[in-house]
Amino acid sequence: MEQSKGKIGIKEFIALTILMTGTKLADDTPAIIYEELQNAGWIAPLIVGALSIIPIALLIRVVTSYQDKGLIQVIDHLFGRFIGFLIIFILWGISFFALIIDTAIYTDIIGTMYYSRTPTIAIYALLMAVCAYGGKKGFEQIGSISWAVLPYIKVSVLIALVLSFFQGQTSYLFPILGPGEWEVIKESSLKLSIFGDFIFIFILVPFIKSTKDFNRGVWISLCIIVAEVTLAMMIYVVMFDYQSVMMLNYPYHELIRTVQLGFLTNMETFFFPFWLIASFVRFTVYMYIAAMLFGRLFKIKEFEYAIPALATLVVFVGSIPESPTQSIFEIRARLIDVSTPIYIILPLLIWIVAKFKGDLKHDKAKESI
Amino acid sequence: MTKQKSLFKMLCLLSFLLLLLSGCWDQKEVEKMAYVVAIGLDQDEEDENRVKITYLISNPEVGSLAQGGGAAGEEPPREIISFTADDFITSRNLANTVVAKEITYDLLRILVVSEDFAKNKKFLRWLYDATKEREIRRDIKILVTKEQTSSFMIDNQPLLETRPHEYFEMLFNRGKKAGMVPSSDLLTFFRITEADADLFAAAYGTAQQNDNSSGKNKDPEQAIAGELQYGGETNTVQYAGSALFKEGIMIDTLTIEETRLMFLLHPTENPVAILTNLPDPFNEEYQIATRIRPNGQVKFDMNLKKETPSIDVTVPVIIEVLTNHSGTNFAKDSEKRIKLKESFEDRITKKFEELIKKTQDEYGTEPFGWSLVARKEFLRISDWESFDWMKTYPDIEINVSTEVRLGNFGRQGEMLNIKDVRD
Description:
The complex is a heterodimer of chains A (369) and B (423).
Chain A: H1 10-22, H2 29-37, H3 43-63, H4 71-114, H5 120-136, H6 139-167, H7 181-190, H8 197-201, H9 211-240, H10 242-245, H11 251-258, H12 268-297, H13 307-318, H14 324-357, H15 361-366
Chain B: H1 2-21, E1 33-43, E2 51-58, E3 78-85, H2 91-95, E4 102-104, E5 110-114, H3 115-118, H4 123-127, H5 129-132, E6 141-145, H6 149-155, H7 164-178, H8 186-195, E7 200-206, E8 238-246, E9 249-254, H9 256-265, E10 274-279, E11 287-294, E12 299-303, E13 310-321, H10 334-363, H11 370-375, H12 381-387, H13 389-392, E14 397-406, H14 418-422
């Protein structure tokens, strides 16, 4: 398609990455982390962020040493037709499955927290329709819309967090180590794939103006995401205390329903639209990536045309589980556990094969990163 | 050509958005809703497993500019209905047998519970329904009433602020600032009940005035709601003192004075300024009117790892002297000022000690939020939980002291010596 020929610059790329991963602070990801880590939940993003440096560094090393090749092309090149197909199939499986359960969760948030009388299928269909429309518009459009909405979304989140910080008590963060230092490290490492989206970002390399932009963009967005998720997780505890926060399904939404600004009470009507836009952007990117992988698997050159069909499939599969708040929570927690090893092993594997093939050698002299 | 085309597209899009604006399933019209501002919960007299629910429904049209003329102007500001139901979720439909509009909790501000029901073990189950209901927020307030909530709501007829939603909002804000009632929100109630360490203090109110003689000559600070005697033409409802909840069950009430002391001992919930009387050290006949303000954070020195754990608490306050009936000229005499300061310190410290002793002996834990400070002494949750604050608290050695800093001596420092004048 014509539109997708355009490339995006560093700021659009950072905005897109932040919206894709950072929005997780406002769904049930915090609830999954608090379940094991109690009031030390805020340490998890720090540890996960630190550990994520390894796979990201490895992937950067490999992927940027090929000119204009994304992760898909690199895998094809390194592993050949058969194994490459298999790996991409696994990646597609994860991304598509994540898309289904995440959209189901978001639909559930909208349904249980805001529009309780609207049929789920209507919310779901509308959500996916918007994402499919955005995805079909092409990558350049997604990039510029991310950059355009990012300031508003982040300012609204920041206002919510600052307001609740002043209404809460920092002493809830104590005992500071929560369930104990080893437990914190162990459980956080198992939840590594909450930042697993970073693997999929490497698929987008061909759309970024230069590899240098990409390189810097990835690190900058990682820092911002770690900072904001940590801050949000801290403030949920500061607001609710750990016993209560562990019982909440969607801490961010309980938070924006609880905060007050002077005489203004029902504040969620102010925060909700921004969250909604962030979710739209997030799933548009997911949708696009899933479609790209799908296009590679089944040799569809103009994969954008597959997006509406995939979106329809998402709606139908996603509305299957009954009482989604709990059942999808379980599935999602398990998906995070299952995809964690892949998040570590795959980059390592790619790096080893690339090294073995000698593809990294001639770069060493050229760039000294 | 292309410009026209894009304009056409734009118009199509805009008209489509217009269609969306008309709303869909969750559309609500203010006119068609009955806004419940307060829910009253009582134990049903006959069936233990049912509750008597009272709705205080606010009329949003009263007090608005749209009021003038027409039928809306003559509508009363509120409507009250009581009936028996299984819980306050299903009761919304039951209420529709009487109320024509759709019941909504969107503007719910306060949950009123009768003292009898709050002392019931089963009370907590009904209260936790609030966490399930989508429209109920966690920032709503809890009020405990002495009598049945249904009669409380009917008797509660504020004269100058007739709109119930505004009334409760202002009442709680003012009560907290003056230190008469605790802030008591649902969020804090859930948090304290779930953390299982402190006591929760809820606001206490009643519409019944106690007429028995014992209350009449009482120091007003030793009173709780219903014991304060007043005349004039006003609302019969009083809000004063607090109801204490231990593990989700109400156990006792605190007087106004105890509530204020509790505020002063609390590490975070500070009152803005308390107006109160303290005995005059220079002449026992008189009382000195003072304004007490917290002077920075309450200081804690906790030593919990010892055989008998100990806590040293220092409460810094600023006291301003507002009246001086004995005519002692302490504004210019430093020795007298020191004596005054010491007398204040002794007096307040003694009051603190009495209250702390009461919490240790009678309640087994405290409403001051000290467990939050104690938590900082521990590194892991398991250590904290095995320390078991609620079990350890009665045995902790607590030393409390007050650090008084004298503020201004009123607008005019010196005082006429009445004795000299009459000479």
